[in-house]
Structure formats: C-alpha cells, structure tokens
Design brief:
The complex is a heterodimer. By secondary structure, chain A is mainly α. Chain A is built from twelve helices and four strands; from the N terminus they run H-H-H-H-E-H-E-H-H-H-H-H-H-E-E-H. Chain A has a two-stranded antiparallel ribbon with strand order 1-2. In chain A, a hairpin with a 2-residue loop joins strand 3 and strand 4. The radius of gyration of chain A is 20 Å and the shape is globular. The relative contact order of chain A is 0.20. By secondary structure, chain B is mostly helical. Chain B folds into two domains: about 70 residues, no CATH class; about 270 residues, Orthogonal Bundle (ABC transporter involved in vitamin B12 uptake, BtuC). Helices cover about 65% and strands about 5% of the residues of chain B. Chain B has a two-stranded antiparallel ribbon with strand order 1-2. In chain B, helix 2 runs antiparallel to helix 14, helix 5 packs across helix 12 and helix 6 packs antiparallel against helix 11. The chains are: A mainly alpha, B mainly alpha. At the A-B interface, helix 3, helix 4, helix 10 and helix 12 of A face helix 7, helix 12 and helix 14 of B.
C-alpha cells in the first residue's frame, strides 16, 4: 500500500530542487526581470556539478562551480535585457536554449561516468524523534534540504523586513522613483538576476549531487525549471508559499512513481500499472501547474495583488514609463 | 550618484559610447543586423566548440556540405524546412501580438495525433480517395492544434493566466498524450509506433513522379512544402493587408491604444492563439503524412522550439520565415550527424541571443562621443 510518510519525506527532498529554483526566480522577478531560462540554468548547474565532482571527487567544489556557471549564464540574460533592453521573454528563451545546448555539449559522455562522491545526508538528533514531522523533515535528508529550511525564512525576511529588501521591491515596482532616490536600478537588477542564476545552479546541483544523482541529459531536469516559474506566479512572489508549493509538487512526483506499483488501487485494479495509462500520471505535474496558475491568477485578480508592477519592462532612465 | 563620479575620476577613457534613440529605421537595417547577428553567433559558437575540444571550422564546413552540398541533401534540407515554415509562421503570428506561444511543439504533436486519428481510429476507410483523405487529415490536424492553442489563449484572455508557462506545460501533456496512444491502443505488435499509414494517407512526393520526370527519382520533398508556402502567403496577407491583421499589429504595438480604439483584445487573443496552434498542427500533419507515414513518439527534433528562433530571426515577417526555415532546416539536418549532439541546439540559442541583442541597433544609434 502507499506509505504517506515516505511520500512526504521524498516530497521534501525532491521539492527542494523546485524551492531553490523558485526562490531564485522570485528574487529576479521582484527586481523586475523575468528570467524564463531557469530550466537551462538548472541543466548547466546539474551538468557542471556532476562533471566537476566526477573530476575532482569534491562535491562541494562541484556545487560552487555549478552555481557560478549558472550565474554566468544568467548574466548573459541580464546584459541583453537590462543594458540592451531586449524583450525578457525572448531573451529568457534564448538563455534556455544556450543552457540546454551547452550542457549537452559539455556533458557529452558524462552519463556513463558512473557513481561519484555525493553531498552528505544528515539526520538531526532529537528532532528526528518527533512523531510524523521527524521522519518527514529531519531524517536522512541531504544537507541541501536543511539549507532550504534556512534559505526560505531568510529570503522572506530580507525582502520584506530589511532596507536592501525594500530597495529590491522599489526597483521592481517603481524603478523611476527608486532611481530618483539614488538606488541603482541597473546595478540591483544585475545583482538579483545573478542571484537567481546562482540559485538555479544550486537547484540543478541539488538534482545531480543529492536527489537523483547522475547526468541524464535533458531528462535530468525534465521541465522542473518551467514548473518553478509557474510556482513563482502561484506563490505570488512569496518565499513561504513557494516552499509549500515546492514540497507539494515534490510529493506529487513521488506519488506518481508509487502509483505505478500496486496491483490494486483502493478497490479497483490499478490501470496505471501498465505502461500506456501511466502516461496520464506523467501529465499530472504539468496539468497541475496550469491549474494552480489559474487559481493563482484568480486570487490575484480578486485581491488586486499580483506581479511586481515593473516586471518585464526594461528601464530606460529619463524615458516616460509605459 | 556622487560615489560613481568619484570612482570614475581616477581614470577616464578619452571617448565614450553613447546610445541615441533612432527616429526612423532605414529599410536595409533589419536584414543587415540579422545577418550580422548570425555571423557574430557563428564566431561565438565556434569559440565554444573550440573550448569543448571540437574543430569549429570543420563543423561549419560539415554543416554546409551536409545541408546544401548536392541536390540530394538540399532536398533533405527542404524536407526539414517544411515543418519549420509552418511552426515559424505560428510563432511569428502570435509574437506579432506580443503573445508568447511557446507551445508550437505540443500543437505540432496534437496535429500529428489528429491526422493519425483519421487513419487509425479509423474515421475514414483506407480506400478513401487520396485528396479527400489528405484534406480530412489536414483539417483534423489543424483543429487539434487549434484546440491546443485555444486552451492557453482562453486562459490568457479571460483569466490573465501567463501563456508562456501554460503553452509550455501543454507541450509536455501533448507528448504524453501521443505516447499514451502509441504505447497503447495504436501500438503495432507492442512496438512504440503505430502501423504504417495506407498509401492514400501519404502526401505526394517528388519521387512518386519519377516516371514522368526522371530527375525527381529519390527526392523525398513532399506536398507539405506547398501547404507551408500557401500558409506563408495567407499569413502575410492577413497580417499586412487585412483589417484583422491591423488589429493584431495594433494590439502588439500598443494594447492600450487598441483597447481605446474598441478592438476586442479578448477575442483576438483567443483567435490568434487558435490560428497559431492550427498552423503548428498542420506542421505535425504534414510531417507524419509526408515523411514518417506512421505515428510514433519521436516525430520532432524540437521543431516547435526552433520555430521560435526562426520567427525572431525573420523579424516576424512571413516571407522571411521561408528563407530562415531553409537555413535552419540545413542546421537541423546536419546537426543529426554532428558530435557532440548539443551543438546545433547551442548554436540556435546563441543565434537567438545575438539577434535580440542586435535589435538594440534598430532602436538606437551608437555614437562615439569625445569627453
């Protein structure tokens, strides 16, 4: 039968990938720059993390290089959208193409590299003994999962309760006013797009060094970068909501795997045991992303809450806003 | 910005670059920047190939020869260009309205599925006359693609749901949907493909007329290219010569003005997404009816995504889409044999980057200013 504790525990682990990617995207979008290249940046991260770790035996070095590589790719997007004022959607797609292509070029043959050193797993003494919460959140998780617990509140606090966070929001909501106050709109946008790239790289490294180790070319990420972008909209640019959504999606991925096993589902023979109907299960995360987008945009319309006002608009000093 | 000035005082370049907004764009400039962008992209790509341990000049020479070197390979290039023309038009149409249909890949798959359904369910018997069969397949492909465009279009128009994410998610759903049929009901003897279509469901190919024209023997160019050329003419007419096209361009350039002018943005969004999806669906129909002759999982090496680049490189001009499609058809064709396999994809990305970066030259002139 289906073990819910196991599913939720796996959900937290796999969800950490989405968590890092969405928090990175939240930072970039809060500054007014949408980066649709998350999927490509994650692949670059996953590839570099695995490649460097296979080469050096040091997963921490792999993690670092992965983040820097994805960050470098995000800077390409930053130059084109912030300095050249190109359309953010098209530039994001280009980032994606370059990320996917480059990771395939440099990752050639890497899928046969076999196993390598991975990031350590921890069980928190004391907390892991808690009923239900212990096994789900504090038992045998990768160190990166715990970093996710730390990152979410820190980023939330940073955005909503600190002065630099206020500047970040100002640049994303009303760049000309921020500029008039002496806040560097271009500088901050570059910085937060780069931060988003670093976190997307971290998300990719989380896959290849911890959650499902290895390099499986494009299937390493399998569209999770796009799901992360959907999650950001659903989360209404709030790290806490992104965390909840990420873990829920992680649990769903695990549930889909587990549903393909048993011969009976409740009182019925399980159709998903067979390969062909199993494809309906594989549609689920993508269909669900559309559904939560619909829910999210309805809620946003009702509460008149929504995207940062300047999201997607290039800022040109001295020009009237559009 | 006093700190900046203080820091800059230490050293100053004698000249500085300044961007000045252009008031008008010379007619030759868009084409020139596109070509320049591709050249820069090829140089950048060459540097990456070199860094990855490859030989850029040899790779490019190989691409040229393998794509345009003889009548035979040029025929294959045109075969690859056929679906690109249609998906390129699909993308160019929505992009003109600043509507981001990234789902041409999924619409392509749905079009292929719809066309297959006519043959495989079967909606029409295998003995149906060829023109009727092909017409039904094209219609089914168009409708299935249009449906796949309608869903994100409706969600965008009515609920303001981000169409970039929804169209992309629909891609994954479409491929799973096709696999469901290919692995299940339509599987031939447990293989991951349907049975071969009857001859009446094949688009005519040049080689079919080898008896009349011996030169055509072995040339696999099929009727899909005619669909593509006609579609390009139709889309050109719609966008540049019809009232509807005027509305589309106005919404793209200035949605607020369009709204004040009484143009129905909701209806136009849904219709344009459906027409775009239908065009991509036609591409799917043309590909399985003209090339693959059966439904299977791997029918597209990412045509839908390449279509995005084709549209952008063609500056959204339907006629230019045809030329760019032929170039990219060659890149896709040669790319199959090039190692490492990611090179064509990476080149596409770099080309797209260079093209959008070069757009800044259309909006601004760069002046060298003496301090």
């Amino acid at each position: 039968m289906i073990d819910w504790i196991v599913i939720l525990q796996a959900g937290v682990a796999t969800g950490t990938v989405l968590l890092f990617a969405s928090i990175g995207e939240i930072l970039a979008e809060r500054s007014g720059v949408m980066n649709l290249g998350v999927e490509g940046m994650m692949l670059i991260g996953a590839m570099f993390a695995f490649k460097v770790t296979v080469g050096t035996g040091n997963p921490w070095l792999g993690l670092l290089i992965a983040m820097l590589a994805a960050g470098a790719l995000s800077l390409l997007h930053a130059v084109v959208t912030i300095s050249f004022q190109a359309d953010q959607v098209v530039s994001g797609l280009a980032t994606n193409f370059v990320g996917v292509g480059l990771s395939l070029v440099l990752g050639e043959g890497l899928s046969k590299a076999g196993t390598t050193a991975l990031l350590p797993n921890w069980t928190v003494p004391g907390l892991s003994a808690l009923p239900i919460l212990g096994p789900i959140f504090f038992t045998n998780h990768s160190v990166l999962v715990y970093f996710g617990y730390l990152l979410t509140p820190v980023v939330w606090y940073y955005i909503n309760r600190t002065r630099p966070g206020l500047h970040l929001r100002a640049v994303g909501e009303y760049p000309s006013a921020a500029d008039a106050l002496g806040i560097s709109v271009y500088g901050l946008r570059y910085a937060y797009v780069f931060a988003g790239g670093l976190l997307a790289g971290l998300a990719g490294a989380t896959i290849s060094l911890a959650i499902s180790p290895g390099w499986f070319s494009e299937m390493t990420t399998a569209g999770q970068g796009w799901i992360a972008i959907g999650l950001v909209i659903f989360a209404q640019w709030n790290p806490w909501r992104a965390m909840a959504g990420a873990y829920a999606f992680g649990a769903l991925r695990r549930l889909i795997l587990d549903l393909q096993g048993p011969t009976m589902l409740l009182w019925f023979p399980n159709p998903f045991r067979f390969q062909s109907p199993g494809f309906f299960l594989q549609m689920l995360p993508y269909a669900l992303t559309i559904i939560i987008l619909v829910i999210g945009s309805r809620a946003a319309m009702k509460k008149r809450m929504g995207a940062p006002a300047a999201l997607g608009l290039p800022y040109v000093r001295g020009e009237r806003g559009r | 910005m006093t700190t900046d000035n203080a820091a800059a005082k230490g050293f100053q370049f004698p000249n500085s670059l300044r961007l000045e907004r252009r008031l008008g764009v010379p007619a030759w400039l868009p084409a020139a920047t596109s070509i320049g962008a591709v050249i820069v992209a090829l140089i950048l790509g060459g540097i990456v190939i070199l860094a990855a341990g490859g030989q850029p000049l040899k790779s490019y020479q190989f691409i040229l020869k393998a794509a345009f070197g003889s009548v035979g390979v040029f025929n294959d290039t045109l075969v690859k260009a056929t679906p690109l023309i249609l998906v390129g038009l699909a993308c160019a149409l929505t992009f003109r309205m600043r509507l981001w249909n990234i789902g041409a890949e999924g619409q392509f798959y749905m079009g292929a599925w719809g066309a297959s359904a006519v043959v495989l369910i079967p909606l029409l018997p295998a003995t149906t006359p060829r023109p009727l069969m092909l017409l039904a397949m094209a219609l089914a492909g168009f409708l299935c693609g249009a449906l796949w465009g309608f869903i994100p279009g409706y969600l965008k128009a009515k609920l303001n749901v981000n169409e970039v994410v929804t169209t992309l998610m629909m891609n994954y759903i479409a491929t799973s949907w096709v696999l469901f049929w290919v692995f299940g009901a339509w599987s031939e003897g447990g293989f991951q493909m349907s049975r071969m279509f009857p001859r009446t469901a094949w688009l005519p190919r040049l080689t079919d007329y080898a008896k009349q024209v011996p030169f055509f023997s072995g040339l696999t160019l099929h009727g899909g290219i005619l669909i593509g050329l006609v579609a390009a003419a139709v889309i050109w007419f719609i966008v540049y010569r019809s009232k509807w096209g005027y509305e589309i361009r106005l919404i793209g350039d200035n949605p607020r003005a369009a709204n004040y002018a009484g143009i129905n943005i909701v209806r136009n969004t849904v219709l344009v997404m459906m027409l775009s999806g239908g065009l991509a669906g036609l591409a799917g129909m043309s590909e399985i009816s003209g090339v693959v002759h059966r439904l299977q999982g791997a029918i597209s090496p990412g045509y839908g995504f390449t279509g995005i680049i084709v549209a952008w490189l063609a500056k959204l001009n339907p006629v230019a889409v045809i030329l760019v499609s032929i170039l990219f058809g060659g890149l896709l064709l040669a790319g199959r044999e090039i190692q490492p396999s990611g090179i064509p994809r990476m080149l596409q990305g770099i080309i797209l980057f260079c093209v959008i970066a070069s757009d800044v030259l259309l909006r601004y002139r760069i002046r060298l200013v003496r301090r």
